[in-house]
UniProtKB/TrEMBL annotation:
SMART domains linked to this entry: t_SNARE
Keyword list, A-Z: Membrane, Protein transport, Transport
Ranges for domain T-SNARE coiled-coil homology: 207-269
Keyword Protein transport: yes
Record's protein name: t-SNARE coiled-coil homology domain-containing protein
Comp. bias intervals (Basic and acidic residues): 15-29, 157-183, 202-215
Family indicated by similarity: Belongs to the SNAP-25 family.
Region (Disordered): 1-71, 154-221
One GO location term (cellular component): SNARE complex
GO BP annotations listed: protein transport; vesicle-mediated transport
Length: 272
């Protein structure tokens, strides 16, 4: 009317649910597909309630929180304490079994080292016997060659004395005993836990488990002491064998030098 124009009516907006959806792009055969990780399978931070003990086995008893303990009755608390004591006894016995297995392997290794030392000793004894035979052969070669031939004297370096006396290891030593205490049983000289009266209440059961744990820990301490002694004996045996090998090598070098001299003397006699 006064020269103003009416604004154009805007087009109605389409609802969000009516927007045109684009079709997903089709994947070609050459395009690699990305695998979807399995959250349960590849979860390295699984925070479940099952705790692993230090032997890699699942514990059958779940630890209770303080709130759970407050809700338990006296009987349930007693049963829970007994179960915890029994689980601790199993863990100590497992540790003792592992230590026993390590001691058994260490005992076999120590026997192998002793056998190796005896073999080095026998080899050195053979070298000493060769020295005696070689000395007789050198004496015969020195007298050969005729009247006008000069007496041949072999060149000798160090004197071959043979191996040092070998220490005899007692096969009935504590490291070689086969009648070891079985796991879970009281060691000799101690009163076994199974010989007493059967516990009646929870407190007696817990005390019985503590007694079993103390006995197993005593056995574990003995095993660790054996392992320490065996490790020291292994080190001493290796040092002795290294020294024996050095002496054997020097004697073998001396024998090789004298054998070469005897062979040269023999060839010289054969050429005449």
């Amino acid at each position: 009317m006064f020269g103003f124009r009416r604004a154009a009516t805007p087009a109605p907006e389409q609802p969000a649910h009516e927007e045109k959806k684009e079709a997903p792009a089709r994947r070609t055969a050459s395009e690699p597909s990305l695998p979807v990780p399995d959250s349960k399978k590849n979860n390295h931070f699984d925070d479940d309630d099952d705790d692993d003990d230090f032997f890699g086995k699942k514990t059958t008893l779940k630890k209770k929180s303080k709130a759970d303990l407050d809700k338990m009755s006296n009987q349930e608390l007693e049963d829970y304490a007994v179960d915890q004591a029994q689980e601790t006894t199993k863990s100590v016995n497992n540790a003792l079994k592992i230590a026993e297995d390590i001691r058994s392997d260490a005992s076999k290794t120590l026997d192998t080292l002793h056998a190796q030392g005896e073999q080095i000793h026998r080899t050195h004894e053979k070298a000493a016997e060769m020295d005696k035979d070689l000395s007789r052969g050198e004496k015969i070669l020195g007298n050969l060659g005729g009247i006008f031939s000069m007496t041949w004297k072999p060149k000798k370096g160090k004197e071959i004395t043979g191996p040092e006396p070998l220490e005899h290891h007692d096969k009935h030593d504590k490291h070689h005993k086969e009648d070891r205490e079985k796991l879970g049983l009281a060691p000799k000289g101690k009163k076994g836990a199974k010989g007493g009266p059967q516990p009646k209440d929870a407190m007696q059961k817990v005390e019985l488990e503590k007694q079993k744990q103390d006995e197993a820990l005593d056995d574990l301490s003995d095993v660790l002491g054996d392992l320490k002694g065996m490790a020291s004996e292994m080190g001493s045996e290796l040092d002795r064998q290294n020294k024996a090998l050095d002496n054997l090598g020097e004697d073998v070098d001396e024998l090789n030098s004298r054998v070469k001299g005897a062979n040269a003397r023999t060839r010289k006699l054969l050429d005449k």
